[in-house]
């Protein structure tokens, strides 16, 4: 891997005698990981299920309470457990920001630069189906991916927007208890996994991104409620984008203070120009099994606003029906891609449940459920969008009636299809067959 001479000088100055180890690490094989989705399953139950299914052994990521290193060569993205949203595939270092932001149930949380959604899905799980998550990305196309990942995670209390931080600040002044900013950056920490970032760095390096980050932080301050916390992170090593950025932010606002992030093996503590220790951390690929990451935790003075817990409410827009978290209606003037849980579509006399509703459903209280084991070959067929053949004991027939008109209008309810007790989507029983109703955009290719 050929690095720009300017970057080499920067890393020499930053790492000193550790630079050769860093340089050598760029030739090592990247490490993949998975993070258990505690919005659907506990870590203990997940490990028991994984072992029961005789899947490859997993090794815990020491600094992530629900993270595991993936074994080399295992295609974790195509398993039925992944398709059921029980885990999210994520690079280990990238799990650090969401792990480090102390989200509590009932919080109002903002993920300001959220796509594709790996960090947002963890913030969602920490809320335990309470409070509110607003996941935002300024790019509408990226926000669509974000929405799908939140739906797969079983989100019932989230909104997705594609907005500028400035516009969000105008609509939600001093509103959020916790804000995660995984800021756009020069991407130095991703050179190993994305070598194309090297050319991007030469074209748009730290000098390009630092002003953008400063502006995002300024708007985040206006979005943060008293007593709230911001987790600022990047996947770069540049001081101008990392510690210098945060120190300038703190200097601009006297009611902010840095909160130390707990030490973990392999984390690098930073110092300022005077050699004094800073409460921020940086992760290097030669010191951990992962890529590069920077994280800083910041707290605002004051007491958290008192809030009255509200019930979720149904909201209908045209034919579409939604369940809104905390009873909050979408704010006019914002570009929404997701407004709470999309329950489904009212089509004349029929109501069609959505894929998002299926992913958030509880099979224990659902009507008609088809339970499949992980080893059942029909699971993969279902995930690919195929019609399934039902066994004799799985067939359900509508009761017959002498009144032909009544019988004609009688409808078989949708069937929730589950693997090992976790939803994958809907189907429709028809005698010996189950018609596949898993949304086309969700099917395995």
Overview features:
Archaeosine Trna-guanine Transglycosylase, Chain: A, domain 4, 14 helices, 23 strands, 10-stranded mixed beta sheet, alpha+beta, 445 residues, 5-stranded mixed beta sheet, 2 domains, Rossmann fold
Structural features, described:
- The protein is of the alpha+beta class and 445 residues long.
- The protein folds into 2 domains: 5-30 and 90-300, Rossmann fold (3-Layer(aba) Sandwich); 361-445, Archaeosine Trna-guanine Transglycosylase, Chain: A, domain 4 (Roll), CATH 2.30.130.60.
- It is 27% helix and 26% strand.
- The strands form 4 sheets. Strands 5, 6, 7, 8, 9, 10, 11, 12, 13 and 16 form a 10-stranded mixed sheet that branches.
Proportion of beta-strand residues: 25-35%
Name of the CATH architecture of the largest domain: 3-Layer(aba) Sandwich
How confident overall, as mean pLDDT? 94
- In terms of structural class, how would the helical and strand content be classed? alpha+beta
Q: Considering the protein shown, what is the CATH homologous superfamily of the largest domain? A: Vaccinia Virus protein VP39
Residues in helix, %: 25-40%
Distance between the termini: 33 Å
Number of DSSP E strands: 23
Q: What is the tally of helical segments?
A: 14
- How many structural domains? 2
Low-confidence stretches: 398-410
Shape: globular
């Amino acid at each position: 891997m050929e690095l720009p001479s300017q970057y080499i000088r920067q890393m020499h100055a930053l790492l000193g005698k550790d630079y050769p180890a860093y340089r050598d690490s760029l030739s090592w094989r990247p490490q993949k990981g998975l993070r258990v989705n505690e919005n659907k399953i506990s870590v203990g139950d997940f490990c028991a299920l994984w072992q029961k299914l005789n899947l490859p052994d997993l090794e815990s990521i020491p600094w992530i309470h629900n993270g595991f290193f993936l074994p080399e060569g295992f295609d974790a993205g195509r398993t039925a457990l992944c398709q059921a949203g029980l885990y999210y595939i994520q690079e280990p270092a990238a799990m650090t920001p969401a792990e480090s932001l102390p989200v509590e149930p009932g919080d109002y949380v903002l993920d300001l630069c959220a796509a594709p959604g790996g960090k947002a899905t963890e913030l969602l799980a920490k809320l335990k189906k309470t409070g509110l998550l607003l996941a935002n990305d300024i790019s509408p196309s990226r926000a669509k991916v974000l929405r799908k990942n939140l739906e797969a995670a079983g989100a019932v209390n989230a909104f997705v927007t594609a907005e500028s931080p400035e516009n969000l600040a105008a609509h939600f002044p001093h509103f959020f208890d916790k804000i995660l900013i995984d800021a756009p950056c020069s991407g130095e920490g991703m050179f190993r996994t994305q070598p194309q970032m090297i050319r991007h760095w030469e074209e748009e390096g730290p000098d390009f991104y630092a002003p953008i980050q400063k502006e995002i932080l300024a708007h985040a301050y206006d979005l943060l409620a008293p007593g709230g916390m911001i987790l600022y992170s990047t996947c770069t090593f540049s001081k101008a984008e990392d510690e210098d950025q945060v120190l300038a932010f703190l200097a601009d606002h006297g009611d902010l203070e840095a909160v130390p992030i707990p030490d973990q093996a392999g984390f690098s503590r930073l110092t300022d120009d005077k050699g004094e220790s800073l409460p921020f951390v940086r992760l290097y690929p030669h010191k951990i099994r992962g890529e590069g990451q920077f994280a800083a935790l910041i707290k605002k003075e004051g007491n958290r606003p008192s809030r009255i817990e509200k019930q979720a409410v149904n909201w209908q827009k045209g034919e579409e029906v939604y369940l809104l978290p905390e009873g909050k209606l979408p704010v006019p003037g914002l570009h929404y891609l997701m407004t709470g849980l999309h329950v489904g579509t009212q089509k004349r006399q029929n109501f069609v449940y959505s894929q998002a509703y299926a992913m958030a459903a509880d099979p224990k209280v659902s009507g008609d459920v088809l339970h499949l084991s992980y080893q059942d070959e029909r699971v993969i067929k279902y995930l690919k969008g195929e019609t399934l053949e039902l066994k004799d004991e799985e067939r359900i027939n509508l009761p017959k009636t002498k009144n032909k008109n009544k019988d004609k209008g009688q409808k078989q309810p949708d069937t929730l299809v589950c693997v090992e007790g976790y939803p994958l989507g809907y189907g429709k029983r028809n005698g010996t067959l189950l018609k596949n109703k898993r949304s086309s955009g969700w099917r395995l290719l």
